[in-house]
Structures are given as structure tokens and as C-alpha cells.
Amino acid sequence: MTRGTSLALWTTICLLLLLPSWIVAVRAMRPDRVAQLRQETVDMFYHGFDNYMSIAFPEDELRPVSCTPLTRDRLNPRHIELNDVLGNYSLTLIDSLSTLAILASAPPDDKQTGPKALDDFQKGVAALVEQYGDGRPGPSGQGVRERGFNVDSKVQVFETVIRGVGGLLSAHLFAVGDLPISGYNPGRTNDDVEHHPIVWPNGFKYDGQLLRLAFDLAQRLLPAFYTQTGMPYPRVNLRHGIPFYVNSPLHENISLDPDGTQEPPEITETCTAGAGSLVLEFTVLSRLTGDPRFEQAAKRAFWSVWSRRSDIGLLGAGVDAEGGHWIGGFSGIGAGIDSFFEYALKTHILLSGHDLPNRTMPTHIPFGSSLDPNSIYTPLSDEDNSPDAFLGAWHHAHAAIKRHLYSEVHHPHYINVHVSTGSPQAYWIDSLGAYYSGLLAIAGELDEAIETHLLYTALWTRYSALPERWSVRDGNVEGGLGWWPGRPEFIESTYHIYRATKDPWYLYAGEMVLRDIIRRCWTKCGWSGLQDVRTGEKSDRMESFFLGETAKYLYLLFDPDHPLNKLDAPYVFTTEGHPLIIPRESGQYRRRQSSPAESGVQSYVASDFTLSCPVPPSLPPLTGSATAARSDLYHASSLIRLHHVPNIHGISSSKPQFGSDDSTSTEAPKPRSNHTHFPWTLPEAMLPSDGICAAIRQQHTSTIEFPSNTQQVVGSAFNLMFGGHNLVRTGEGIAINSLNGLKLTMVQEEPPDASHRIWRVQSIGNLPLGRDEKVLISRDVLTGMSDPLFHRIRDAVVVDLLLQTQVLPEKNDTEMNDLQDMAHPQTSQSSVDVKSVGAPNIFSSFLSQITSVLRDPVATYGPIPAPKPEYRYAELPAITPVGLGAAPLPDVAEAPNPLLGIQIDSLSWSKIYFAGQACQGKLPDKAAKSHHVIVMRRGGCSFSEKLANIPSFAPNRNALQLVVVVSDDEEGNDDGEYDVWSTNFIRPLLDETQRTPSGIARHHPIAMVMVGGGEHTYEALSNVKSIGLRRRYHVESQGLEVGNLIVL
Question: What pLDDT is attached to residue 405?
Fold first, then answer.
């Protein structure tokens, strides 16, 4: 081989090796196009910001259609949609400062974007200080408008914290260099910026004015935390506090109405997000100022909300700040609850590596109020302050959401359920819920993040915005809630998932958002929201978060090399999009050991909680997008009905000229018959030519309708308890009294959703059931029913021993007490402690909820009859053995249902012999010949040896019928807790044929069962009068067990 031939061969090999990466680079978005989108985003921001500063500042917001300022509605104080947010303190400027600081790190360009944004940031800080002072108590603290935020405005605590306090803190961190700005050197030599100010080119000396203003604003919110629950009241007046909450310790019984008229009582209902999403801002404020009041108050509010989660781990959307009870009973991931989950995870990130906070109140507050709501509560523990506790809250919250809200039908999405039962309540998604995919990406739940984000991308593609609420079931805007006020949640998630995957698909999704905003929301004075995404009607309001969040996340998406995108530190974005960090100087990073597990409800403890970031999907070599190649890509578009919607978008479209009055100027669209892919900006070349779409997941359901003439067994216990009602919802589940006219809808579940393939009752008539709700039905209702779609199957493994004990009459002091006692005879659970004998009794908890209806009518006064014996009953779960020596249970009549209240003189077996371990040789002959039941203790010898020590006997009705072995085992489930629907131990093994003491094979093997509870059960059995047998049953349909239907 010649040298030239060898060189050519190696060149070819190198080119072939580089080919896959070259193809990916071709398919990915070109850098010059990314730069163009970045510049268009900058232009979009400045079109809104410049118009706000020239038209509306120092008012709160801009009306972009009428080109006027937007202020509080002074004539209608109850206009909370406006007044909750607009506090009359230049809100849009405060919300925009961190965006300006981020734009200040823009790459060099012809428009000098970076230097201009830094100059505008510094001018904005100076303008704010001019209006509201520098936060000091002296003359410099008086601004043109007010001294600090001493304004007569009743505002929402939550909105004021996330927009006002968060915006000021984030801008401060940029100003002092704790958050990065390219080319900006504050020249700090120590932390004392107040005594060593930073001099800016415009002559302004920054000495911490923003931090002091944030402190002033936050102090004015502290009165709201004076509640019985620790959760803040929803609103506070920045000047007067909370005189309108009459039950607060700070209520001063004064009226803010100058006419002295009495206003209606202020509502105390807040939302879970509003009460629990204050920790990030207040923690950073406390760490920067050394004042612990804010951090402790916010954390207490968080844990107060978390402690009220239901038994299945869910949180409600609305909660009463005074009473602490849920309002409405809805649970979801969107409006009213969204940022609580966000702050659980992000507080863990923010606190990671830092010492526990100093909780000592400073002896001197330099200025402002010294109110400390923490003084009326027990101090928070170290665990409550630790980052690990917040991570645990996130893990358990996410697990409960995945269990009860997550639906894989058609395409993964989240539904709204009842907070206590998990039963479906509504099948809509809202635009606020779009944040959750981004949160999942931060948490490392990447696949769930990607699949749920697809749904919102398809929804945006359909409407060129996200409607406030959209019905998954009906495929339309829900209830006319079709507005989009410029919300950032969808682009926020797009940004976070792109950072986690580097998949160019998300750049095209961001381009779609930018193009649609420019096409639909541009006005000559700024950017409007959409009053209706279907018609394109504009709303005359530019919300502050449009510049503070939407523009910010779009910019960071298109600036992959931004220093914030490369910052290796535990910083977070607040729910208002403001970056926050605890500087190292305020608490050195250190490695923390794991904190002990949180006490309280731990509904879902899993060893597979995600504790690290997974490897993102690899990018295919030919298309460059793993997301575009997903086999479920079109499942989302199918669920959104995107294939039924005409595609009005052309291959390309231009943005309107910002200086033109024509807000609809675009290139002529090239309409297609419908949408074949999404986002509509995605090049078709990025779709795999040989892509395969997986089958859409649909539930296999079965519906059973019972005729209305089904005969109900007379005397059913449920008839007595329910007073004729067919259904009653109890703490254990839905109890069915009669099948007359009922309609059961069942859904088939397979692993991993269930241990094996089963049916689950999904709804009874129009009543939906939660995923873990049980259906309780008396065996009396199923007696004699023979239907292949619904029939009773006897359980061959587990039975219940019914224990009857006699209640000894009590000697009372007066005849009246005797009469009262006789007027209320007890027909209920035995005095035996069922939990102590090895397993909870199904009836015990069920009966406790409805036991009052079982009592007889009050007796009338008259001659006192002779007292009748009074009995109580308890059920003891027992398990049958396996092996060669196992014998069938005796064929005795089923013990009656104790809930019927029937007085039974004796159950099947009344003669009981107690044999200890029965390992010391042959038992007395009378043990088998004169007793119905022999009770033994487990241990000492094998089960077969115990039975071999029972003497021979002739079977008859008065001889031995059953052997009960009492085990000391407490073999619960993996969590160490009892399964209320089963036993907690394995089946005993009789590994050889039963024999008599003489070694001869027993002609009539003896039936045996084993119970748990050890000494407590053994002692309890010694006090029973008689024992009966109740067999267990389950229901099958079409050969499969109905898993959540319990036969009582």
C-alpha cells in the first residue's frame, strides 16, 4: 500500500467516524438561528419594558392596548383579582430587575445588549430608590412616593412575597455579585456593602438599598402570620397590618373605612401554594440580614400545611388559615397548590450544604417593627429546618401524585381528585400545571417530565397559547376559561427540560412560543394577554410576570452559555422566576449527614426515590432529537385532538415590526389540512422516516348492571345500619347494602400497578372511587348469587374465628343507672383487644363509625325485667395449613354476622381445651373426646408432632373438631404494619400424614388453623364462651378477582 493510498484510507475512516456527530449538528438548530431567536427575545422584552417605563412607571403595570398605566381599583376594594397583586409600589420594575441583570450577560452583539441591559438595571435600581427611599429610618429613607412600602394597600401575602420581596432580593444578589453578571465587577472586598458601597457608572452608590427595601416590605407582612395554625392570613394592609381579621391576636377593632361603616368579615381562606410557598424568599432574607423571623415563620407555615395532608398523602388546594381545615376537598398539581411542591424540592436545593440557621432573635431591630409571630409557637426543630426534611416532603408528595393523580390513559396527564379518597373529581388540566414537567426535570424524574410536557406542547400548538383550563374528557376549553395572561409555566418547563436533555426539539418549542406571542400579543405599547385563545381577543393588561418570567425563561433557553446556566452552586428560581442563592459568606457549605425520618404520615416510602440526575436520552444520529423519535409522540397530539385542527402556520413567518401599528403582519401562511407534527416550528427532517407509533394505551373496562328486582336478603346487617340506603361512604371505603339497580364499572389492572392481573371497581353508578378505595359488601348480599360476571368465591386460605364472650353485669349505685345500662345493651366488639392479638378487625373500624344505629330503642320505665346475658363478639383471622397433613375444615354452619345484633346463646364450639405447646407426649383422652377445640402454643416441636400427641377418638359432634395454634410471629408487610384485609404470617406446613400417638395413620385427620398474637391471644381465648367459624370470600368476574371488593 502506497503512502498516498494509506493517507486517503485514514482520511475516509476519520470522516466516517465524524459523520454521526456532523449529521446531528446539521439536524440541530444552527447557532446563528439560536442567536436570532435570542435577539428577538431581547427585542420582545424591551418593547414591553421601555413602554412601561415611559408610560406607566411608577405605577404597577401597563395597559398595552389603551397605552395607560394600570393601578389598584380604589373604588372596589373587593376587586381582588387586581388588588391582590397591585400594591402601588412599581411592581413591574421590581419584577423586571432580575431579567435585566440576566440580559446584562448577553454575548457581544451589534446592539450592545449586555452593556445596555446592565445600564438599565442600574438605572432601574436608582429609579426605585428615588421613589421609595433607601430603606433607612432617616431622611434618605423617604422617597418621592413613600417611605419604603408604607402604602395603604391591602395585598395578598403570597403575591407580595414572590413578586416584591423575591424581586428585590434577586436584584440585590446580582448587584453585589453573588449572582453572576458577565463583565460586572462590584469590587467587593468584604460583605459590608453598607459601609463600602459599590459605585456605578451612573454615579449611583449601591449600599444595599434593595435588601433594606425587601426587609421593609417583608416586615409589613409579618402580622399575617399571627394565626392559630401558623399559616398566614391571605391578605395584609402594608400600612395598617391586619385589623380586618377579628380572630387574630393583633386585631385592634378599628375600621379602615373612612366613613366608619362595617365591612363584611374578611375571608380567612388561603391556598396551599399561598401558605406554603414563602420559604425561598424568606429564608434568603433571614440569612442575608441575620434576622431569623422570616425564615422560621415561612418554614412553620410550610410544615403546617404539610402536616394536614390526608391519609393517602394528598394536599387540598384551599385551606382555612384559622381553622386549618381543607376547603373544597380538591387535590391536583395546578392552581392553588402548584408552587408548594416546587418549594419543597427547591428549599432542599437552596439549603443544601449550609449550616442550620441561627434562630436567636437579634436584641435590636435597626428599624421597623419588632413583631415576631414565632414567639407564640413552639420553636421549630432541627429536623424542621434541615434540607433533608424538605426533600422527604417532595418525595412523598410526588409519590402520592403519581399514585392518585397520574393517568396513563391515552397519554400521561394528571387529573383532579378528592383529597381524602383519591376519587376523580374533574378531568381538566390548567395552564398553571405546565410548571410540573420542569419541576420533574429538576428532580431527576426525566421520563415523566418529557411525556407530560408533550401534552402541553400539543395544547399550545392547537391554540397558539395555553387556555387557562382545558377538558381532557371533552377536548375543549373548560367552562369558558380560555384566557392566557402571558403565563410563563410552559416555557419554564421547556427551559428546564432542555437544560437536562440538550434536545433541540425544545428549542423549536421555544421558537413556537416566541413566534405565537409576537403574532398574537404585540401592541404598539407593549404585550397584551389573550382574553380568549380561541378568538385572539386581547386583554388590556401586561402582567408583571410577562417581563419577569416569560421573557426571562425564553432568553435563557436561547442563551445556552449564559453564566447562570453554567453556575455550579445551589441556586434556584423562585416561582416568580427570580434567581436566589444563599451566599457562601452567610453559611459555609458543608456535607450533611442524613436526617432521621420524619414522623407522621408516611404514605409512600420507597427505596427507589430518585436521588440523582439520570442520563438523558441519547440523541439519534439521523434526526438529532430523542423527543421527536419517541413512540408516544402522537399520543399527546391525539389526546389534544390536534389532528382535527387546521394548521394555519406556514413553514416560516416573520414577526411584526415593533414600530408598526399592524400587529398581525406575517408572511402568507401555507395552510395544511391538519397538524401532522408539533411544535409547528419543528422541521419535518427531525422526524424519523421509519418512526413507529406505539399503540395508544386504553383501559380495559367492564360494566355490570344489576336488575332493580334483585332480592335483598332480609336481616342483612347493612340494612340495619344504612336505613335503606344502597351505598354509604365510610372511612374504610364504599359499603354496598344492596345490589338492586346498581351499576359497577371495573377497570383491569396489571403489574406493576397490581401484583397480578385483577379487576378494580372504578365507579359505582355515578360515584367514582379512588385508586386505593375499597368496596365493602356483606356476604349476605351475595348469598345464592350465581353469575359468571359477578360471583362469590370461598377463600381456601384464610378464615375468621368468631369469639363470643359474656359481659359480666356491673353493680351500679342507683336503680336509674341499672335502667340506663339495660336500655343500651352492647352488641359489638369483644373486650378482646383485636390489634393485640395479631391483626386488626375489619369490623372494628367499620362498626365504630356506625355503631350508634345498632342500639335498641331506649326502654320505657316500669318493672325491671330479669337481666339477660349480654355477649360481645370479635373476629380473629386464622390461616389454614398446607402439606400432606392438611385436613379440610369441619362442615359446620356459618357463624352469624355479629352486626345483626342477634342474641346467640352459643356458637358452634363451646368446649375448649388448652394444651400449652403440646410437645410433652400424649394429651389426656378427654382433650379430644370431650372438647370441641384444642388450643396450642406454637414452638417446642413441629406442627405434625403437636397433632400426633392428640389421642385417637371417634368423631362425633361432641368430640374434637378443630385445633387452633397460637403463633408468636408478627410477620407484617415490608413496612412492618398489618394488612387489615389479610393475615400477617405464612401458612404452617404439615409435611407428613397425620398420625396417632401410636404412630398409626389417622383415619380422620384433624383440621387445624393458626392465629397470631402470642400470649395476648392465648389469654383472650381462655375467656371466650364459645367459638364459631366464618369463612372469607372474594368476588371474581370473568375469571379474574375483583381486587378492591371486600366481602364482609
Answer: 97
Active site residue 468: yes
Among residues 291, 468, 532, 773, which one is catalytic?
468
Coil, strand, or helix at residue 790? Answer: coil
Q: What value does the CA radius of gyration of the chain take, rounded to a whole number of Å? A: 36
Tell me which of 60, 95, 134, 159 is the catalytic residue. Answer: 159
Q: What share of the chain is helix, strand, coil (3-state, %, to 5)?
A: 35, 15, 50
Confirm whether 992 is a catalytic residue. no
Q: What are phi and psi of 955, to 5 degrees?
A: -60, 130
610 is in an annotated binding site: no
Q: Which of 95, 489, 559, 780 is catalytic?
A: 489
pLDDT at 981 over 90: no
Torsion, CA 124, CA 127, CA 131, CA 137, rounded to 10: 90
Residue among 693, 709, 706 nearest 643 (CA): 693
Q: Give the 3-state secondary structure of residue 437.
A: helix
Give the pTM.
Answer: 0.85
With residue 927 as reference, give the H or E element that holds it: helix 925-929
pLDDT digits (tens, 9 = 90+) for 416-474: 999 999 999 999 999 999 999 999 999 999 999 999 999 999 999 999 999 999 999 99
Domain annotation for the chain: domains and CATH numbers: 42-225 (no CATH), 226-253+265-307+314-360+377-426 (1.50.10.10), 429-542+620-656+670-692 (1.50.10.10), 871-971+980-1037 (3.50.30)
Q: Catalytic residue at 338? A: yes
Distance CA 295, CA 330 (A): 29
Count other C-beta atoms under 10 Å from residue 91's C-beta. 26
Residues 982-991 as b or e (16 or more Cβ within 10 Å = b): ebbbebbebe
Summarize pLDDT for 684-722 with one digit per residue, the tens: 888 887 777 889 988 899 999 988 864 444 444 444 444
